[in-house]
Specification:
By secondary structure, this protein is mainly β. The protein is built from four helices and 31 strands. The N terminus is likely disordered.
């Protein structure tokens, strides 16, 4: 039997000894006990302060961690040390080269492309290095389908959230668009001065390079500032390739300012023409002040309205120098002076979207007016200044010295109006209701309720359009007719004697047309375009139609590989046959080699002689994404 120690007795003795010792100590020094209590209180207070410091540090670290997580989820291009997945979440493991990883690298980037390319040949089997269009139609427009003889490509890079997409930072994005226009190709295309060259095959054009900044004001983050060069809220009639309002260019502006009744857009845009040089002002420069009030609701009337106000100014000066064909600076035979020029104008644009398909079912109508140099574009008007000078020299042959045109440009005006309508049919359909037998009194089946209408891809679409312009440059035009000089100085009609002529500076242009498409299968259609055009008082000097009026009709038809959906569905692979016929008054003036008013790069001699009709055949692809 084991003996257990007398624990109870031992503990009693230890406790008694402790109490006795403590009593003695308290009796000996009561003040020492008070000091120990004060020290203990001080220690407790110190620990509480340290605990508060630790809590503050933890709170600060949590805030920093949330900030880092926000930056990681924002996908900012500045966070190069943080690897994120396609949704912006941080990835801790080593990445694998899959679709999700690639999206994580590009999710703030957008890439889009517009391209058209093809070939065409004329009715005699030769090259079709020309288009059919009126010689002086505004806006450098032409009937597009089966009638575009150039190859053109725009490449657009857009990068969003350059500083991140956190609500605490300014939201900055970038857009960059270079364009490539093939002006001739040694193998299949020739449109540069009608001569095959061994050198440059294309023009490189910078169309857009600008920044946008949102969230500048936290109370109105939608207000957006921009600066650079850009397509600025431009409007066009697409089947004609006619931009009737286009103040695109270099500048700065702000938009999406909510005024209650609509959104305010404001821009300051500049354009120069450095062809002539003034020692006083340098290059000729045009300033455009563009104000627009957009998205105005019309109460019970569907659609919305945009109001446009434009102001323009060009500083006057005396031009004494220019450039020769090799780019060398030379003195002008007749120095040219112009007073400062101004312009003011505006108008209204009405838009309506109906049915499914966005712009494939839409109506746009517009009316614009401009006085002076306000002509709905941002380019400097040095060409008009030179036109007024040429009129003076025409009226004063042999004159030497300075030509002063004064305020001629201030007397000009431009009026425009038109519409475009796109629709695709049918919009909707209902599937046949299934029959349930045995429910009627006579034992025949009854139909269940018809299902809700479901969208259906259309089998027919059409565009209808019309445009009108009346313009006056502020002066009449002087020049000569016959023998009409064609491209490269070739005589169009050697039998017509040379004669001097002054014609009115007022020009009327009008055209209308339609572009239907009928789908034979889901991706195969027959498409055409038909238009009629009229122009009064052609004012391109040096050609037999100078000062005359005339009309042009263009008719195109052909199969197309194109997805269903409407006018704007792309891509399109086209095969076309285009026939054009024009009045005798415009012989030699309806087949420009390059796009643009005034014949662009000049007029090609009609392939079938000096007649008033012609054919083009070919193929073309057009797409954008």
């Amino acid at each position: 039997m084991k003996l257990r120690p007398p624990t109870g007795s031992l503990c009693s003795k230890v406790a008694l000894a402790f109490l006795c010792t403590g009593s003695v100590a308290l009796a000996q020094d009561n003040s020492s006990s008070n000091n120990d209590v004060s020290a203990l209180k001080a220690q407790i207070q110190s620990l509480q302060k340290q605990q508060q410091d630790y809590q503050d540090r933890i709170t600060s670290m949590e805030a920093q961690m949330k900030s880092l997580e926000s930056k990681a989820e924002s996908g900012s291009i500045l966070n190069t040390r943080i690897l994120t997945d396609a949704d912006g979440k941080e990835v801790s493991a080593a990445p694998t080269l899959d679709e999700s990883f690639l999206k994580s690298l590009t999710r703030n980037f957008t890439f889009s492309v517009y391209v058209r390319a093809g070939f065409q040949f004329n009715g005699n089997g030769g090259g079709g290095n020309f288009s059919f269009e009126l010689p002086n139609f505004p806006g450098e427009g032409r009937e597009r389908l089966g009638n575009e003889n150039d190859t053109y490509m725009e490449l657009t890079w857009m990068q969003a959230h350059m500083l991140g997409d956190s609500p605490d930072v300014m939201d900055v994005s970038m857009t960059f668009t270079p364009a490539i226009r093939y002006v001739q190709n040694r193998n299949t295309f020739d449109a540069q001065n009608n001569v095959t060259r061994s050198g440059n095959n294309f023009d490189f054009i910078l169309r857009q390079a600008y920044l946008e900044a949102k969230n500048v004001f936290k109370t109105a983050p939608e207000v957006t500032f921009w600066a650079g060069v850009r397509f600025y809220d431009r409007w066009n009639t697409d089947p004609e390739d006619y931009f009737w309002l286009d103040t695109s260019g270099y500048g700065a502006g702000v938009y999406n300012i909510d005024l209650g009744i609509g959104k305010l857009w404001a821009a300051w845009i500049g354009g120069l023409n450095a062809e002539d040089i003034s020692p006083g002002i340098g290059s000729y420069f045009k300033q455009t002040f563009d104000l627009r009030l957009k998205n105005i609701q019309l109460g019970p009337i569907p659609g919305n309205l945009a109001l446009v106000f434009l102001g323009n100014y060009e500083k006057g000066g005396t031009f004494t120098q220019s450039y020769d064909a090799d780019g060398n600076i030379v003195d002008l035979t007749n120095p040219l002076h112009t007073d400062s020029a101004w312009g003011v104008g505006g108008g209204a644009i009405y838009t309506l979207n109906f049915g499914p398909g966005g712009s494939n079912n839409s109506l746009t109508a517009y009316a614009l007016f401009g006085r002076g140099i306000t002509n709905f574009g941002s380019s400097a008007d040095l060409g008009s200044v030179q036109g007024a000078e040429n009129l003076f020299l025409f009226r004063h042959p042999g004159f030497t010295g300075q030509v002063n045109i004064g305020d001629a440009l201030n007397h000009g005006y431009t009026y425009r109006a038109g519409f475009q309508l796109y629709f695709a049919l049918p919009w909707y359909h209902s599937e046949p209701a299934p029959v349930v037998a045995g429910n009627s009194k006579d034992g025949k089946g009854v139909a269940e309720p018809a299902p809700a209408a479901a969208p259906r891809q259309p089998w027919f679409s059409v565009a209808l359009f019309g445009d009108w312009e009346e313009s006056y440059g502020g002066f009449a035009f002087g020049g000569n007719t016959g023998p009409g000089l064609g491209q490269g100085g070739n005589v169009v009609n050697a039998n017509e004697p040379i004669a001097s002529k002054i014609v009115s500076g007022r020009v009327h242009d009008f055209q209308f047309g339609t572009r239907p498409a009928v789908w034979l299968a889901d991706n195969i259609a027959i498409q055409g375009q038909f238009s009629g055009q009229y122009e009064s008082n052609n004012n391109i000097a040096g050609y037999p139609g100078f000062g005359k009026s005339g009309w042009l009709g263009v008719f195109d038809v052909g199969p197309v590989i194109k997805p269903k959906g409407g006018y704007y569905t792309k891509p399109e692979i086209r095969f076309f046959a285009t026939y054009a016929v024009w009045s005798d008054s415009l012989k030699g003036m309806t087949t420009p080699i390059q796009e643009g008013s005034g014949g662009g790069g000049g007029f090609a001699a009609p392939y079938n002689g000096n007649t008033n009709h012609g054919w083009l055949f070919g193929t073309q692809v057009e797409w954008f994404f």
